Amino acid sequence: MEIQQKNVVIATTAAMVILTAFGLIMLRRRNKKIKSSTVVDGNTDKLKTLVLEDMKPPTEWKQVGQISGLRIYPLKSGRQVNLTKADTTEFGLKEICRKGTLPLRDRVFVVYREENKKFVSGRDYSKMLKITVNSMGNDSVEFSFDKERIIVKVPQDGEQDNIDMRKENIRTIDCGDELSSWISKILLGKNEGLRVGYWPDVRRDVSQVYKDQLEVYKNMSNEFTGAYSDLSSFLIVNQSSVDDLNTKIGDVKNYVTVDNFRANIIVSGAPPYAEDEWKWIKIGDKAVFKPYKPCTRYRQFTDKDQRRLEGESPVMGLYIGLYTKGLIKLGDPVFVGSS
């Protein structure tokens, strides 16, 4: 019992150190009021999101770094797949693989409760972080957890569920009873209770459920949503910002890595927190992205008085949407511009 209590104290102390470091970073950052470019339809009171045609990328670019990491997470909250190169699609990164092999894509599988259709994540079941998805031929994938493995055919049609993912109701194609039983055993220890869904290539509509954010983040758009990602089709993180965070943490035992933030694209060579000012991003020769919102998933305080004292939610990384497609790879130069 004493050992268990000691472990809890150590874990709690480590978490507090990391959260305190986030708070210090946020004291450095200034809140900026952003004018809204969304429009309210007088007939429907529906916010119209900014479309790509309304955006004008810059004509001049300045190199700020290079790509040091490319990752996808085929299963939402599952283990990452490291890539050396990738196609950029409007819904996120896609693996480039040999002919006859199904290319993996980012966050196209999701786990949800059979009873109420609510999605679950690594916050609910930490074992999910160790579940790997690999391509097996031109129409199948393998799910694995330690020594437990199962190969399933990726559904292209079939029974669909409407799952509850935070504020959104999103369509998914059920992957069948066999995979449902497998993942229920892994996460729940029983033969039922959870289902696995596959994304049916539908465009999400954020114009209603994220109306409050659309009023603040002027470049947020339906065109920038991913499959089952939290909000954006791409998350980019600056390695130097993570390194600087570790200097605030101090104790090497509590250091974090870019893996903690589950980004798709990692940039090296830029100054810490330079990404706060990036208006446009170009990677390699062709791929162009539009940043539109800081990633604020890593929250420190929930009490309003604490927030007033310590500042707003800490951020790490940028949500970005694709403006121009292009192949990107490790070592590619990263440019920024403004317009």
TrEMBL record:
Instruction: Return the PROSITE patterns for the record.
Output: MOSC
Spell out where the chain crosses the membrane: 6-27
Q: Name one Pfam family in it.
A: MOSC
Keywords on record: Membrane, Transmembrane, Transmembrane helix
UniProt cross-references to SUPFAM superfamilies, sorted A to Z: MOSC N-terminal domain-like, PK beta-barrel domain-like
* Record-annotated MOSC domain positions: 203-337
GO MF entries: catalytic activity; molybdenum ion binding; pyridoxal phosphate binding
Q: Which InterPro entries match?
A: MoCF_Sase_C (IPR005302), MOCOS_middle (IPR005303), MOSC_domain (IPR052716), Pyrv_Knase-like_insert_dom_sf (IPR011037)
> Which named protein is this?
MOSC domain-containing protein
Q: Which organism is it from?
A: Rhynocoris fuscipes
Q: What is the lineage of its organism?
A: Eukaryota, Metazoa, Ecdysozoa, Arthropoda, Hexapoda
